[in-house]
Automatic annotation (TrEMBL):
Annotated protein name in UniProt: Four helix bundle protein
Domain of life of the organism encoding this protein: Bacteria
Coiled-coil residue spans: none
Family matches, as Pfam families: 23S_rRNA_IVP
Source species of the chain: Nonlabens ulvanivorans (Persicivirga ulvanivorans)
Length: 95
C-alpha cells in the first residue's frame, strides 16, 4: 500500500484483510457462523479484486462491469455484517 490516506484500492484491500482476521476469531463449529464467515471472506475479497480489475480495465464496458460487480459485492458484505450482528454470530466490537 502506497500510503495515500484515502486511496480506495488500499482501503478495500484493508477491508478484505480485516474480514479474514475477524473471521479467524469466529466460532467455526457453529453452522451459521461458519457459513457467514466463509461468505464474508469471499465477498470482501471480491470487492477488492474487482476494483483492482476496474482500475486496469481497457474498455469503458469492462470498467463499468467490474465496478458494478464490486458495488454488488460491497452491498453483500454490508448485509452479511448486519446479519452477523443481528444473529450475534460475532462480537459486535470486532465487526
Amino acid at each position: 500500500m502506497d500510503g495515500k490516506k484515502y486511496d480506495l484500492e488500499d482501503r478495500l484491500i484493508k477491508f478484505a484483510v480485516d474480514m479474514v482476521k475477524v473471521s479467524r476469531k469466529a466460532d467455526w463449529t457453529d453452522y451459521a457462523s461458519r457459513y457467514y464467515q466463509q461468505q464474508i471472506i469471499r465477498s470482501s475479497g471480491s470487492v477488492a479484486l474487482n476494483f483492482g480489475e476496474f482500475l486496469g480495465a481497457s474498455s469503458q464496458k469492462d470498467k463499468l462491469n467490474k465496478l458494478n460487480i464490486a458495488h454488488k459485492e460491497i452491498k453483500e458484505c454490508r448485509n452479511n455484517l448486519l446479519i452477523q450482528i443481528g444473529a450475534e454470530l460475532n462480537d459486535k466490537t470486532e465487526l
